[in-house]
Design brief:
Helix content is 24%, strand content 23%. It is an alpha+beta fold and 476 residues long. The chain has 2 domains: 309 residues, Naphthalene 1,2-dioxygenase Alpha Subunit, Chain A, domain 1; 104 residues, Rieske Iron-sulfur Protein (3-layer Sandwich), CATH 2.102.10. Bound molecules: FE2/S2 (inorganic) cluster (FES) and fe (ii) ion.
Length: 476
């Protein structure tokens, strides 16, 4: 039943909670995992117009996108002076350039002569020369040359620098914004940001990067990754080792929220299965591999039962966390001894408004990004896998994103992201184009959300509305 008074959702899945698992952890649980963070929300239906209307998209393009911090690149995508990244989103195009002092500048990727894009590809540059008539800028954005300058006496060189965006770096992510009055990224993102100080994603690098154009609005695709409860129908193969229905959902300020979905724990939907079943289900899913790119490294080590109580209801978590600690340390030399079993195992899907999701914790970290494409009905979904750079080594430069060809599944990129993960994404993608077309076919034009399990979608939509109504952006 819809209601208009904001309330905090109280109902939870019966059975053990994520907090119960934390209390059974082999390490003391830190406050940033123990403490729940809920916000009062309404249960009003959402309108399908947000996903299908070109007028709504135009509103987003005008009022929201220029006024948020956007994840434009990872630092390791362009590590050396002169390296560039072309970051495109919808019809916008931005050019990021690594400077001689290793700082980063970001420019609007359009020539100030007659508007041609200055670059259409990432890569090294000694200068920024427009391929049309040759107007040229230095890598710092200052004007270098106008061919035939006798015909441009009306232009002053000092007024012809490339317009710039603001740039900040956080945990190896390069953030840009068109809005010069926003608070700093850390302040803007809000109170969940300090959780990542424990996980130091700046110690990681991009080991795999895959993109695919999905025939659905960017919010349809993003929201499919904001709740775990579709797993019972869409991803039944993960229920043996995924606590789906008792996922924790936490909301922070306007720009961040998280889901913590426990791994190596049985779904509440499955009854009467023992800990051996959990371990075997996970091994079957991953193929038993301790691959550095797998979030389930070290599974072989879990066969070692010594030192654990065979009746412990969380035995699988303890064994698999121990296995991951040992396997990851052997792979990269980092010390994982202080991290909870939860941080070694679980799925910490944080979302940063509006369109990206850096996973927390200490297992290889997935990063999603959903970029609007050129119309309402398509988006680019990207998946990166970050792995920790071995101690004492320099992060390798990222390989370019591999775009899965139209009509092919994520499975075509199994060599990069693993068959198990690709299979999960392909199950999601089997729904999403039909969500987009179904919304257009809907008689009611309304969407109803679960009060708790879909609270992150509500939170995200509320923030979007604040931008469209002018309540946001916040100012410095
Ligand atoms: S459009 Fe760039 S030099 Fe003419
Ligand atoms: Fe899914």
């Amino acid at each position: 039943m819809a209601e208009s008074d904001p309330k905090i959702a109280k109902a939870r899945c019966p059975g053990p909670s994520y907090t119960d698992m934390l209390k059974a952890d082999t390490r003391p649980a830190p406050d940033y995992l123990l403490t729940e963070s809920n916000l009062p929300l309404t249960n009003e239906p959402l309108s399908t117009q947000a996903y299908v209307s070109p007028a709504f998209k135009a509103d987003e393009d005008e009022k929201m996108w220029p006024n948020v911090w956007q994840f434009a690149a990872r630092e390791e995508d362009f590590p050396e002076p002169g390296d560039t990244v072309v970051y495109e989103i919808g019809d916008k195009s931005f050019l990021l350039v690594r400077q001689r002092d290793y700082s980063i500048r970001a420019f609007y990727n359009a020539c100030l002569h007659r508007g041609r894009k200055l670059r259409t590809e990432c890569g090294p540059a000694t200068q920024l020369r427009c391929p049309f008539h040759g107007f040229t800028w230095n890598n710092d954005g200052s004007l270098k040359e106008i061919p035939g300058d006798w015909d441009f006496e009306h232009l002053q060189s000092k007024d012809m620098s490339l317009p710039e965006l603001r740039v900040e770096c956080w945990q190896g992510f390069v953030l840009i914004t068109e809005n010069h009055d926003l608070p700093s990224f850390r302040e803007w993102i809000g109170p969940g940001v300090e959780h990542f100080d424990n996980w130091r994603l700046e110690e990681c690098h991009t080991a795999a990067w895959v993109g695919k154009v999905i025939p659905a609005n960017w919010k349809v695709v993003a929201e499919a990754f904001m709740e775990a409860w579709h797993s019972i129908v869409t991803h039944p193969q993960i229920l043996g080792f995924t606590a789906d229905a008792n996922t924790r959902y936490d909301l922070y300020g306007d720009h961040m929220n998280r889901a913590i979905t426990a791994s190596a724990a049985l779904s509440p939907h499955l009854k009467g299965k023992d800990q051996q079943y959990v371990i075997e289900s996970l091994a079957k899913f991953t193929g038993g591999a301790g691959d550095a790119r797998s979030r389930r490294g070290g599974i072989e080590a879990t066969q070692e039962l010594h030192g654990f109580d065979a009746d412990d209801p969380w035995l699988a978590r303890k064994l698999l966390a121990k296995g991951n600690r040992e396997a990851f340390q052997a792979q990269n030399g980092h010390d994982y001894s202080r991290y909870t079993d939860s941080e070694m195992l679980d799925n910490f899907t944080y979302n940063v408004f509006p369109n990206w999701s850096p996973w927390g914790g200490m297992a290889p970290n997935i990063v999603y990004r959903w970029r609007p494409w050129h119309d309402t009905d398509n988006c680019l979904m990207e998946v990166r896998i970050l792995i920790r750079t071995p101690v004492g080594e320099k992060a390798p430069k990222s390989q370019p994103m591999r775009l899965v060809p139209e009509g092919e599944p994520f499975a075509a990129a199994s060599d990069l992201i693993g068959a198990a993960l690709a299979g999960v994404f392909d199950q999601d993608m089997a729904n999403l184009p039909h969500v987009q077309t179904g919304m257009k076919a809907s008689k009611t034009q309304r969407l109803e959300l679960g009060a708790y399990q879909e609270s992150r979608i509500r939170h995200f939509q509320n923030t979007l509305q604040k931008y469209l109504s002018g309540t946001l952006p916040a100012k410095k």
